[in-house]
Amino acid sequence: MAFKDAYNRLVRENRERGQSVRWVASLGWDEVRREQALCLARERGRLSAKDVAGYLVGPAVLPTALLAAPATLSKEKLAHNKRHLEGVMAILVNGQKKMAAQREQAANAERFEFETRRAAYLRQVERCQRERQAAVHQVG
Question: Do residues 95 and 48 share a domain?
């Protein structure tokens, strides 16, 4: 109930301030469903094409005109399509770099947390060993 109360409070406060909804992607673990959800969010206008492309692993669905046989397109259209594809590829590459950096940052944070816990456990073990030795000396 605490989450629901906090959520309702935040919604009410933002509505009172006139602040609009800000959609963000929740990626999950299922890549297929992730792509479907991202594309649906894009179609509904909740995320921009640039945002969606940054999260997709492979190329996004391209307009069929980009895939048409070169003989059916003018030189101008081919040049336009090439520039468009280069732009899409740049977005995808940047998205992959961004995701790799986020994965690395998460891994570093996880390593730091692990090492912090490990150090705390080792201190606790040492303290217990000292207390045990002290107890043995008192009995002995």
Answer: no
- Statement to judge: residues 105 and 131 lie in one domain: yes
Q: Which of 25-29, 115-119, 122-126 has the lowest mean pLDDT?
A: 25-29
The two most distant CA atoms of the chain are separated, in Å, by: 97
15 vs 106: CA distance, rounded Å: 33
19, 79: one domain: no
User: How many residues belong to the chain?
Assistant: 140
Q: Which amino acid is at 72?
A: T
**pTM (whole model) above 0.70:** no
Tokens of 1: 């109930």
State pLDDT tens for residues 21-37. 787 777 778 777 888 88
Domain final residue, candidates 39, 57, 75: 57
- Pick from 16, 88, 84: which is nearest to 52 by CA? 88
Domain of residue 52, residue span: 1-57
pLDDT, residue 61, reads 47
Q: Specify the amino acid at residue 59.
A: P
Report how far residue 44's alpha carbon sits from residue 52's, in angstroms, rounded to the nearest whole number: 12
Tell me the two tokens of residue 123: 């201190």
